Amino acid sequence: SFVVHMLTSLASRLFTKAKQIGMMSKDYAWIITDSITNDLHLTNRSVIDSMLGVIGVQPYVLQTKELDEFRIRYKKSFMESNPRALDVDIYGLWAYDSAIALAMAAEKAILGNTTYRAANVSRNSTDLEAIGVSISGPELIQALSSITFTGLAGNFLLVNGELQAPPYQIVNIDGPRASGIGYWTKESGIVKELNFTSADKNTYSTSKSNLGSTIWPGDQSSPPKGWVIPTNGKKLRVGVPNVLTNFVRVTWNSDNSTKVEGYCIDVFAAVMAALPYGVPYEYIPFGTPDHKIAGDYNDLTYQVYLGNYDAVAGDVTIVGNRSQYVDFTLPYIESGISMIVPISDGTRKNAWIFLKPLTWELWLTSFCSFVFIGFLIWILEHRINEDFRGPLWYQIGMIYWFAFSTMVFAHKERVVSNLARFVLIVWFLVVLILTQSYTASLASMLTVQKLEPAVTDITVLMRNKDYVGYSNTSFLHGFLKKYFNESQLRPFYSDDHLDELLSKGSGNDGIAAAFQEIPYIKIFLGKYGSKYMMAGPPYKADGFGFVFPLGSPLGPDVSRAILNVTDGQTMEEIERKWFGDKTDNPDCNTLRPHKNLGLGSFWGLFLIAGIVGVAALIFYVITFLSENWSVIERSSPESSMWSKIVKLLHTFDNKDLRSHTLKELQQTENATTSQQGESSRRMKGKIELADRN
After folding, report:
1. pLDDT class for 375, splitting at 50, 70, 90?
2. Which in 151, 251, 316, 426 has the greatest CB count within 10 A?
């Protein structure tokens, strides 16, 4: 970017020369100050044509009736007598307003003494220094500082002896003239429209979004970088691994040209585009003449140290030994090391799986609750309901039968007490929620595969001396040598090859587990997630970064650009492009064994049922004692408390003949007995009549 502040004549020569040498192209940005913008109407047309896309600023003058009348008077007074005279410009308007302000200050100061005091100067002084000093000067200056009015050029106001900055219009040279694209004010910064009445002084904006449509050098609508990093005419040589993965995918054409794409490549392109300057670059695959990778990733990064590449873009992990001879940027994707192991499914073979949905605490609480509800309903119904009466063992069986039959709503006994009905309403809600939750949990266990790793930890592999796998291009070979013998390590060359080795197993010329970085594991499980899973604790890794030579000035700038890209929407779009939606490829950490339903999920329901049941029991006991307290009163004073309680229990065991249910039953029985007696008498009369005949 260039900011030009010079005489208009020099600026004309500058832009003409810049056009000739190609500096008015899309890679450049030019800004001119008001000293040049004010004189654009005097500039030659050919110079204006060479300034296409230049941004300028100039003081904004509001077109008023007073200004129009002044221009008319000016043309009549000066331009008719002197046709070569220039039209009035901003400097002329400022001069006119200054003269008006000086006259107003002189009137305000009421100057009485207009004499001058002789200056004390030496013989070598200039003529200007010999001019006398007005005695009334201080009063005139003070009066001038307080003068405020609306002049032809705008508001006239001196602040600390200087004219207050007026609003500036931002213009864009988009053809034969300059078009306004916005404004700048001292209070609000850059704004699209001026609003002198309701300017928000608390909001100061420098956003380019407040500018109108802008044409940039090279007839471009998008802003240029401002400057291009010098490369001596050469592009930045960016090495990429010659692989075919979602991270980096190198495709060779028949003419030996290549197409480089992938997640890492898109991230690198977005990061380079986010730099404040342009960097031309080209991708160079790290491969052999037969289009195979020329080595592992250690060899690839070492090419930067040798000077064969200027940078490396790809799925290169930040490792300590590599940073000894190259510089890494900040990581643009998190990483780690973990195991890929086959899934072992033993859930469906468990004969006691029907007990798994609930924890033993919930089973015990449910059993006790069923017994409590059955016993409570028996208490509330015993004296008034024939279904809850009978021999002792019959009543005990009825308690359990009625309680557990509510689990499937299969009870046939009629409940006549309002208290019992109220308790059962709440209990049915508890049973419904509990049974539905149990059914859903059991169905999930039986139909959804429970993921259990065949190998849970690296120590199991070490103890069994199993074979383990690693990527042939990864740094993990050195990592695994800390735990396993060289003979136990087997490389794999692709996801399909890894699937083949894991399917065979360690005993059939395969492997029991594979170690890989977590980003690769997610891609692998996206393809083979039904057969394998990630297991064991992850080991820390520093993630993927871009590689530059030691001390490269690009490294810090690229790291800052990575922060900007990873915080924005661009990263999500790139991930969605190459890895799909997260819902399509679930994270392996979400594939966890099924959890049993515990008491913590239902204690609120049991609490409500318990409170309702206890309240109903207390109410029933109070009512029973109030109705049968005479039993206690009729007892002998010498009777013990136990004997009184026994009498109350005998009373409880008897029928409550005052109950409307028993009254209706008694009336029904009496009516039936009367009908049977009447029928018997009629039959007897018929028999006697027949005997007489």
Report:
1. confident
2. 316
Decide if 532 contacts 524 (C-beta within 8 A): yes
What are the distances in angstroms from CA 264 to CA 39, 207, 315, 581, 620?
Answer: 51, 31, 6, 17, 75
Q: Which residues pair with 150 in a beta bridge?
A: 155
**Exposure string (b/e) for 399-415, b if CB count within 10 Å is 16 or more?**
bebbbbebeeeebeeeb
Based on the fold, state whether residues 147 and 190 are members of the same structural domain: no
Q: Which domain holds residue 92?
A: 65-163
- 3-class secondary-structure state, position 31: strand
Higher pLDDT, 261 or 276: 261
Could you tell me if residue 426 is inside a domain?
Answer: yes
Per the rule left: phi > 0, alpha: psi between -120 and 50, beta: everything else, 142 is alpha
Query: Do residue 173 and residue 156 come from a single domain?
Result: no
Closest CA to 513 of 343, 346, 296: 343
Q: What distance in Å separates the CA atoms of residue 148 and residue 564, rounded to the nearest whole number? A: 48
Dihedral sign for Cα atoms in the order 207, 212, 217, 220: positive
Pairwise CA distance, residues 506 & 373, whole Å: 57
614 within a domain of the structure (yes/no): yes
Q: What angle do CA 81, 84, 88 make, to 5 degrees?
A: 90
Nearest to 577 by CA among 263, 169, 193: 263
Average pLDDT over residues 578-607: 66
Same domain, 301 and 441: no
Question: Where does 391-466 have alpha helices with state H?
Answer: 392-405, 418-447, 458-464
Q: What is the pTM of this model?
A: 0.50
- Is there a domain that residue 187 lies in? yes
Distance CA(170)–CA(60), nearest Å, equals: 9
Contact 497, 469 (CB under 8 A): no
| DSSP code of residue 219 | T
Residue owning tokens 């009063």: 139
Q: Is residue 246 located within the same domain as residue 320?
A: yes
